[in-house]
Structures are given as C-alpha cells and as structure tokens.
Amino acid sequence: MALVLGGLALVTAACETVPYTGRSQLQLVSPDEEAKMGVQSYQEIVSKAAISTDQQATAMVQRVGSRIAAVTDLKYSWEFKLIADDKQANAFALPGGKVAVYTGILPITRDDAGLAAVLGHEIGHVVARHGGERLSQQMGVQTATQLAAGMASSNPATVQLVATALGAGAQYGVLLPWSRQQESEADHIGVLLMAKAGFEPHAAIELWKRMQAASTGQRPSEWMSTHPSEATRIQQLEGWMPEAMKYYQPAR
Questions:
Q1: Burial class, 128, CB count within 10 angstroms (exposed 0-12 / middle 13-18 / buried 19+)
Q2: Distance of alpha carbon 204 from alpha carbon 239, whole angstroms
Q3: How far from chain centre, in Å, is Cα 55?
Q4: From the candidates 79, 122, 183, 230, which is the catalytic residue?
Q5: What pLDDT does residue 45 have?
C-alpha cells in the first residue's frame, strides 16, 4: 500500500499542463534532460544525412521555421535543416529546437503556408513536450507491468501471462492511443502557431487534403495506428479554425 501511495504521489507531483490545450500530462523527465536528448539525437541523424544544396528551398525552410519558432516561448538555439531525401515526405522537430525537413515533403507543402502547417505541427510537439511525455509513459508502463506481474501470482506461468496481457494492453490501450492524442494535439497547437506567425490557418486543411491524395498503400486501421487518418485530421482542423482565426494576422 505504501508503494502504491508513493507512486500516486510521484505521478501527482509530475503532472504538468500542456500549453494552449490545457491537458494534464505526466512528465518524469526535466525540460533540460529532454532538450539534451533531443539535441544529441538530432546531431546523430544530421551527421548521417545528406544536407540539401538547394539554396532556395533551404532558405524557405529556415524562413518559415524561424517565424513559427519566434511565436513560441521556447528559448532554444533553433536550427533548421533541409535533408535531401525525395523518398521521405516527412519532417521532425526535437526538444532543444532542432528541426529537419525532408525534400520529399516539399511537393506536397508547395508553398510557405503549406510548409508552415507542417512545421507548426512538428514544433507543436516540442511546445507540448510530447517527447518527455512519451519517455515518461514508457517508464510508467514498464514499471506498472513489472509491478502487476509481480503482485498477481507467485506462479511463474501466471506471472508471465499477466505480464504479456498487460504488455499487449499497454501497446494498444495506452501507448498508441496516447500517440494519436499527441498527434491531434500537435495539429491543434500547430495551427495556432502558424496563425500567430501570420500564415493563413486554412492552409493546414488544404495541406492534409493533399496528403490524403498523395497517400499510397493500405493504411492500418486507425485504432492500431499511431496517427489519426487524414480525414480525421481535416475534420478536427475544421473544428479548430474559429480559434485559429482569432490568432491570425496576415504578415506584412
């Protein structure tokens, strides 16, 4: 009982509030630790990547990214890289202010506003501290699984069964749904950030329509996916538009 109460006290003390959305989240990792890990990961990725020599596209990434970063409250040394990889329609932002865009996404983003929707989303993950939250979830799931398995029975076969069941439950009942929630939350925060930075927020809806058209192959069912479907994202963004438009002032 003392162990359980101690765990509850730790969880309560580690709860934080996500900016803009107000959601409570578990944070067992400090912002400094999170940023340090983010910078290290970024340096490792970039050191192995082919950095684009396209000066015009690189300038666009830095221009749009800097405008999005400027409207956050994060005091990072922001860095934006364009990675030459036409096969990846992707981008990422890591704690510590390190951001990379793959050239494969540029035909879909098309212009500054489309890229702002992508970078708003990625930087939204950083603003919401989703990296630290995911680490905290992993730590919590592992601990809970071990404790439950140990308390369930002294029979090794039963302990293994409980551990396996809770592991499966953690995978599909906790980690994936939380990841989908984080993706939606990053969409929400991202559209507000792009609006604050002077990019027309409706461009985010148009981006996801293009993403939907460009999507190839059979997607896993949304319940077993880490990301909401394009249709879900479009519907959610439409619901957030009135809020986003309150932040929007066209850039001069």
A1: buried
A2: 12
A3: 28
A4: 122
A5: 94
CA distance 152 to 160: 10
Antiparallel, parallel or unpaired: β 98-102 and 79-83: parallel
Q: Which two tokens stand for residue 234?
A: 């479009």
Is 122 annotated as catalytic? yes
Distance set, CA 108 to CA 99, 104, 135, 167, 230 (Å): 18, 8, 31, 37, 14
Q: How far apart are CA 31 and CA 225, in angstroms?
A: 28
Profile the chain (252 residues) by mean pLDDT over runs of 10 residues. Answer: 44 80 94 94 95 98 98 97 96 97 98 98 97 86 61 55 58 76 97 98 97 77 81 97 96 76
C-alpha to C-alpha distance for 244 and 110, rounded to whole angstroms? 21
pLDDT of residue 144: 57
Q: What is the pTM of this model?
A: 0.86
